[in-house]
């Protein structure tokens, strides 16, 4: 009897000690990123009687049968989904803000208006040297602003491409680590502290990966995970101990595409998707900016071809190149401006060709198109800012929900410390009673 009591008390002390260890681990990692609260499963140990005494019960105390993580797979999945959506929105918003600055701060619209204003002033006295010089200066400024905007767009696109490549490199590191964790999980004991730590590591890596690209996850009974890129129909990134490499390709227009293990995929979430969307916007913006620049080049040069310079010679192209990145002033001599119509003599005050240029610029709607372009990108930025704020709220709510369920509550852990400490002390007292009983029995014998 005394030996049974001693065995039962000792098992209770071991179970309480295990629970105390887990509680202390929770407290120590209360602020650790990715840590999920642990709890112990304690079960009663019983054994039936011998062959001839099957109805007897031999009490054997308790034991720790496993360490559980207080993780909710649905809430974790929601965190990954919202992290992916927010990362895409963050990257796209940053890209759009940089593109807006590229064209808005340069002042192309204002430069077009100023050029048109200089033409109007020149029409009052088309042979005035200072007024003609002002037209040349205004046009040169406009050409320079087009080039600066194009260069700024190129710089913004380079930044997006760099960020996307950095994301690809980071994703490959994460998938390799996930494959390694899978191998370790396949060997870890079920319900062990090692398994719990590995599952924390797995979930942390999955969350990091979802910030780069949206993923689909399938979990094995032993905790291993199979990961697919861009949803359930995408290529496999991680399976068992194997990881596929993600690669990025850059097209001639600057847009990007991705493959995993040689299979193409298009991410709809994560920073890769945001940067890809930003580059697509940049390509469209550059194309529309080129159209505005070409309309100015066409209007100016066609007018030059239809008139004569101040010395009566045929007008020559005033602008060279094409597109916002190629537009340049062909000459800087104000006398080369073809303000008079073909057939007019030298120093003609006939400004009909100049009037035709002003009309052509107005018909090309360069200023209106530029204004519409600026308004559109500004509207997109404002819209994405509102969307981003909403996604931040959603992601925060998902994380709070997970933290409430999986995080460490120090007040509860403090209460558990007292409870398990009392259980440990009570088991110790039971062991002491067993010893006293044993000593009494020995003395009687």
From TrEMBL:
Where would one find the signal peptide in this protein?
none
Q: Could you confirm whether the keyword Secreted appears in this record? A: yes
Q: Which UniProt keywords apply?
A: Bacterial flagellum, Cell projection, Cilium, Flagellum, Secreted
**GO CC terms in record:** bacterial-type flagellum basal body; bacterial-type flagellum hook; extracellular region
Pfam families reported in the protein's UniProt record: Flg_bb_rod (PF00460), Flg_bbr_C (PF06429), FlgK_D1 (PF22638)
Which positions fall inside the Flagellar hook-associated protein FlgK helical domain?
94-318
- What are the residue boundaries of the Flagellar basal body rod protein N-terminal domain, all occurrences included? 6-35
Entry's Gene Ontology molecular function annotations:
structural molecule activity
Protein location? Bacterial flagellum basal body; Secreted
Q: Name one GO biological process term.
A: bacterial-type flagellum assembly
Q: Where along the sequence do coiled-coil regions lie?
A: none
- Give residue ranges for domain Flagellar basal-body/hook protein C-terminal: 404-442
**Is the keyword Chaperone in the record?**
no
> PANTHER family of this UniProt entry?
FLAGELLAR HOOK-ASSOCIATED PROTEIN 1 (PTHR30033)
**Family to which the UniProt record says this protein belongs:** Belongs to the flagella basal body rod proteins family.
Q: Any idea what this protein is called?
A: Flagellar hook-associated protein 1
Q: Which organism is it from?
A: Croceibacterium atlanticum
